[in-house]
Design brief:
The complex is a heterodimer of chains A (174) and B (507). Chain A has one domain: Rossmann fold. Chain A contains seven helices and seven strands, in the order αααβαβββαβαββα. Chain A has helices spanning 2-10, 23-30, 35-41, 57-64, 97-109, 120-125, 156-173, and strands spanning 45-51, 77-79, 88-92, 95-96, 115-119, 135-137, 147-149. In chain A, α4 links the parallel β1 (45-51) and β2 (77-79). Chain B has 507 residues and is an alpha+beta fold. Chain B has two domains: 5-106, 2-Layer Sandwich (Beta Polymerase, domain 2); 189-506, Orthogonal Bundle (Cytochrome-c3 Hydrogenase, chain B). Chain B is built from 17 helices and 15 strands. Chain B has helices spanning 5-10, 29-40, 91-101, 189-193, 198-205, 213-228, 234-262, 266-287, 307-333, 335-341, 349-354, 359-363, 372-376, 395-419, 476-483, 491-498, 502-506; strands at 19-20, 24-27, 45-51, 56-61, 68-73, 79-81, 104-106, 148-153, 165-171, 174-181, 296-297, 300-301, 437-445, 450-458, 463-469. In chain B, strands 1-13-14-15 form a four-stranded mixed β-sheet. In chain B, β9 and β10 (174-181) form a beta hairpin. In chain B, α7 packs antiparallel against α8 (266-287), α8 runs antiparallel to α9 and α15 (476-483) runs antiparallel to α16. Chain B is globular. The chains are: A alpha/beta (174), B alpha+beta (507). Chains A and B meet through α1, β1, α4 and α5 of A and α4, α5, α8, α9 and α17 of B. Chain B: InterPro entries: ComplexI_49kDa-like, NADH_Q_OxRdtase_suD, NADH_quin_OxRdtase_su_C/D-like, NADH_UbQ_OxRdtase_30kDa_su, NiFe-Hase_large. Chain B: This is NADH-ubiquinone oxidoreductase chain 49kDa. Chain B: Keywords: NAD, Oxidoreductase. Chain B: Residues 275-430 form the NADH-quinone oxidoreductase subunit D domain.
Amino acid sequence: MRKTLFRSIIQAPVTEAPPPADEAALAELAASVDAAALRRLGRSLAIREVDAGSCNGCELEIHAINNAFYDLERFGIRFVASPRHADVLLVTGPVTWNMREGLERTYAATPAPKWVVAVGDCGFDGGIFAGSYAVAGGVSAVVPVDLHIRGCPPTPTQLLRGLLALLNAAGHDR
Amino acid sequence: MEMTALDAITNGRTADPDHRPWPRFSVDEGTWTKAAVALHDGECCLLGYWGERDRVNLALGTPNLSAICVLSLENVDRVFPSLAAAFPPAARLERTIREMNGLLAAGAPDSRPWLNHGRWPQAQGSSAPPARDSHEKYIFLPVEGESLHQIPVGPVHAGIIEPGHFRFTANGETVVRLEERLGYVHKGIEGLMAGAPLAQAARLAGRVSGDSTVAYALAFARAVEAATETVVPERAHWLRALMAELERIANHLGDIGAICNDAAFAIMLAHCGILRERVLRAAATTFGHRLMMDRILPGGVSCDLNGDGRAAIEALVALIRRKFPELVELYDNTTSLQDRTVATGILRPALAQRFACGGVIGRASGRVVDARRHPGYPPYDQLAFDVPSLIEGDVNARVWIRIREVEQSLALIEQILSRLPEGAIATDVGAVAGAAHAEGLSLVEGFRGDILVWVRLRADGTVDRCHPRDPSWFQWPLLEAAIEGNIVADFPLCNKSFNCSYSGHDL
């Protein structure tokens, strides 16, 4: 244990320089960002992740943005355990009919101001599962969405660029 | 050849000529009941159980999976004899058959719905299963006794995990019963596959459970190749195994870290997370996708290993060989961590055996079964590897099996890189020869355990019906047993050490 900890002190961290914020995401956010609300948030975002029907591929990459390479927390963005503590809902999956109410209630439990980020091609429009009897559609079919981060699944870098755009929109308006 | 329990059940019947590679027999209710008795007596194990419009299919194996067969009860008119009446592991599958295919298992011990929460809209002419009244209340099992209280958890959980509902009944801190309710991420994948062209169905198969995308794509491809008698080039088999072992290492690393993190030992998560990320980056360099989605297709693989890819994987293996032993030592020498994992969440070997529980969970409870060994598939017949097993069945044992399997997978990758055959990486899928349809079955060892895929192809090569069965079907019920008598606070630890798939189970 000591060896491992000592080595961490003398070795350079694996954490990488942040990628630039996603331009397309900034454009999409321009419409939904309320300057006054973002001023209140400062440069800090609390995220509640909701799997509304995903294959769990997106969850793997959302986990990855917490690892030492991407280190999401250095930007003031962190995952929280309750929607009551959240500014942002990060929603994956096509929304299944069986999860629709769960997502609606999680959204309702999130205090305003709040944003919804839909992750993945399935979160965008249901993706490969669109048209199934069990699928209600993309995230925007159930709750209003402020930002889409597409991909199957989006890479950690794509996720980071999208979330940084959300944070930058806050800094910019301030 | 030695007479197996399966031969005793099928008793000289003629197998369907269009089902490969293992035989499928049309049986009567008498034989069906014999199968229930054999399952009850532990002479054979349940590999899969799925319905069609007027037919129920049952995949059986001998206890070590050296022999496999499928029994079909045909022309079922709404009702068929329940297996679960004698063999409870079949219960959730019979509930599913009832709601998906409208076929009722007579005498079944549990007639509650399972995946159908009464929320699916009924479009005219849709492929949707029969509706249920959405106001019908789901009844959890009754609990009686002094000082009991219930804790409902989910479907939305506190972590970044999939949705499901857990109903705990506790006496003080001690869990006296856990009842799971799943189905929240049911996407109707079997419905989407019916009628789909092969390429589309393969993409769907790769998204049954995203963390096992390689294993599912492989299982689907092998089922299609069995049905069409397609002979895959040797190099493709080896590249598939390379991807499958990378996927196993990535997931085991993630799980080892996450289990320790649930015991508040975050440093293991951080270091395992770094190694896992290295695996995914090597996969992206080599195969162009971090999770290697859509790289295995019926007929072969879609991308070859080039010089850069080989160098990336060699560097990865060297790195893990250097770093991983330190982490293993850290796990082994941290008594506060062991205090949480040893003797926690014990799954008794007899239950693992009864449920034919595969993967790490089964092997940590003495069930030494690995689909790469039996029934086996190429190239593993030409590779040397051990199937690690333990008998303790606790969280600690499940961690150690994962550790040993990471080491085995590294050795497999080294063998694959040094002996990778030259040649083509794909071939055309054969036509559905002569017949109106062709059926194929496959069993593939994913990181969670054996994945079964059964497929029936139409004469035009599209999918008529496909049934993917996740290993979690036979693991989720055992989590309910393993948590009993543990404290509520140890549930995340137990759950993570199982790491069952919600999406793979809910379909």
